[in-house]
Design brief:
The protein is mainly beta. It is built from two helices and 35 strands. The strands form nine sheets. Strands 1, 2, 3, 4 and 35 form a five-stranded antiparallel sheet that branches. The chain is globular, with a radius of gyration of 21 Å. InterPro entries: AztD-like, Quino_amine_DH_bsu, WD40/YVTN_repeat-like_dom_sf.
């Protein structure tokens, strides 16, 4: 597929990229794509978020959880039930030139790259380095996005002592891995440790009872514990870990799912079925609770409008949360109720942000709901075959140049 690196008039350029999920103005191109996995079928669909149509679909081995890299160049499909991880080139790449950024847009493609293992689970990517965790194995694997895009990933493995449901966080020459419960590895991990790629431990273990949930925000990476958060930072060669205890003003409870802010450094965690907690480690009072009207289904941060996050609740409402004020600022009814009773993995809505659109999957009605992020009003729907479930958004704006 010819890459978009040619300057042209707005009309000619728009015609030339009509099939790529992008629009242009002069030498500026905006492209947004949604990658949507099915709840039951081994399929990932590529949706043009600008025009609201399907661009492509890829067959994989099983239903997938989707993760995008920080660069947005790669989408990883983790297929836990099939024991496989597939990599998809998003077809959208950006190049920073200081005073402006260039964009390349081409077809998305399923790469000839597949990792296999027992019970692949948590996926973490930081600064082009990937950590893939396997619940059924005693080693985690680490590789680079660059090598994946070249079709030649060369994973480094690091021992995690025993198979358990944990997580690994990649750094330059080190990794942070969870420590299994020594009495029963099927229970939640009890802490974290820093390991070198040579397999040697660095420093002492750090306690984190009931560890579950992790996210990155800015230079910090957080792991959720029953006692608070472990905050990982790196100012030198070796990552450092410190404990941030829950405030005594909080009611009894803890977080087990985390997301990290973009543009502003903060975290959001669940805190009971119908509350979320806003966490700002830089503040003396780091934790603020936000009450939801009903139980939480899914939540994400807005990477463009840094002071907002979005929560879908089981009554079918989408809520805009002002993370600076610490309150729900707007609510919008979108779907039928999706009860949180039943199995944890039943098909329920998921949320992503694609530029000026908030996108919510509606798996039982085979559609995506589009919400204007500025007005917070519904702006459209996209029909999607099957049960659209997990999704990630990739895109943005950049300039194109004539290299001739």
């Amino acid at each position: 597929m010819k890459k978009l690196m040619l300057s042209a008039s707005a009309a000619a350029l728009a015609m030339g990229i009509a099939g790529t999920g992008a629009f242009a103005h002069d030498d500026e191109v905006t492209a947004w794509r949604l990658f949507v996995s099915d709840h039951a079928a081994p399929t990932v669909r590529v949706i043009d978020a600008v025009e609201g149509r399907e661009l492509d679909n890829f067959s994989i081995k099983g239903p997938a959880s989707l993760y995008r890299s920080e660069s947005g160049e790669t989408v990883f499909a983790v297929q836990g039930s099939a024991g496989a991880i597939s990599a998809i080139s998003s077809g959208i790449a950006f190049h920073d030139h200081g005073d402006h950024g260039d964009i390349e847009v081409e077809d998305a493609k399923l790469l000839d790259v597949e990792l296999t293992g027992t019970k692949p689970a948590h996926f973490v990517e930081r600064q082009g380095k990937v950590a893939q965790w396997f619940d059924g194995e005693d080693k985690a694997r680490f590789f680079s996005e660059h090598d994946v895009l070249k079709g030649k990933p060369e994973p480094v493995t690091v021992s995690v002592v025993a198979p358990h449901h944990g997580v690994a966080v990649p750094y330059d020459n080190h990794v942070v891995v969870t420590i299994p419960n020594p009495e029963d590895a099927s229970k939640r991990p009890i802490g974290a440790r820093v390991m070198g790629h040579d397999g040697k431990q660095v420093g002492d273990d750090v306690a984190c009872p009931g560890l579950h949930g992790s996210a990155g925000s800015g230079s910090l990476y957080a792991l959720a514990c029953s006692t608070g958060l472990l905050l990982i930072s790196q100012t030198g060669d070796v990552p450092e870990i410190r404990h941030l205890a829950y405030s005594p003003s909080l009611p009894e409870g803890s977080s087990s799912a985390l997301i990290g802010g973009k543009g502003l450094q903060y975290f959001i965690g669940n805190y009971g079925a119908d509350r979320i907690v806003l966490i700002d480690p830089s503040q003396e009072e780091s934790f603020r609770l936000v009450q939801l009207p009903t139980r939480r289904v899914h939540f994400v941060v807005d990477p463009v409008r840094a002071n907002f996050a979005y929560v879908v609740t089981e009554d079918g409402q989408l809520h805009q949360v002002d993370v600076v004020k610490g309150e729900i600022s707007k609510s919008l009814k979108l779907t039928q109720p999706y009860s949180m009773d039943g199995h944890w993995s039943d098909p329920r809505p998921r949320v992503a942000v694609a530029g000026d659109k908030i996108v919510v999957t509606d798996p039982l009605n085979s559609k995506l709901h589009l919400v204007n992020a500025e007005s917070f009003e519904k702006s459209g729907e996209v029909a999607v075959e099957g049960k659209p479930f997990n999704l990630v958004a990739v895109g943005g704006s950049g300039k194109v140049h004539d290299d001739n």
